[in-house]
Amino acid sequence: MTLDLAAIRDAHERIRPHVTRTPVLAGGSLDAACGGRLFFKCDNLQQGGAFKARGAANAVFSLSAADAARGVATHSSGNHAAALARAAQLRGIPAHIVMPRNAARPKVRLVEAYGGRLTFCDSTQEARERTCAALLAETGANLVHPFEDERVMAGQGTAAVEFLEDLPDLDVVLCPVGGGGLLAGTAVAVRALRPAARVIGTEPAGADDAARSFHGTTRVPMTDPRTIADGLRTTIGEPNLALARRHVDDLVTVSEAGIIAAMRLLWETLRVVVEPSAAVPYAAVLEGRVAAAGRRVGIILSGGNMDLDAPLPWTRTQPSP
Question: Is the pLDDT of residue 317 over 60?
Answer without folding.
Answer: no
